[in-house]
Amino acid sequence: MGGGGDLHVPKGLWSPTGGFFADPKRWKRNTLLAVAAMAGLAALGFQQSIKMEQRHAQPHSAIPSQRWYTEQKFPQQQ
User: Fold this and answer.
1) Which one of 8, 39, 55, 58 counts the least CB within 10 Å of its CB?
2) Phi-psi region of 31 (alpha: psi -120 to 50; beta: other; left: phi over 0)
3) Could you tell me the CA-to-CA distances from 1 to 4, 17, 25, 34 in Å, in that order?
4) Distance (Å, rounded) from C-alpha 8 to C-alpha 37?
């Protein structure tokens, strides 16, 4: 089990997942583009979340979104 011997696999082997020796061209650039796209989408989602946030009462304890929540109008408690 596991013997650790040398794999005699031809380097020209092709498979949909990249084969045994997967090293796609420009993988660093593609990874950077994918990370940048995900970060951009996350930033847009965060901005939209800030715009849509509503509070119906003053929070009882500190919460992180108080740092960027700009509307300070809360209904008067009776």
Assistant:
1) 8
2) alpha
3) 9, 25, 34, 38
4) 39
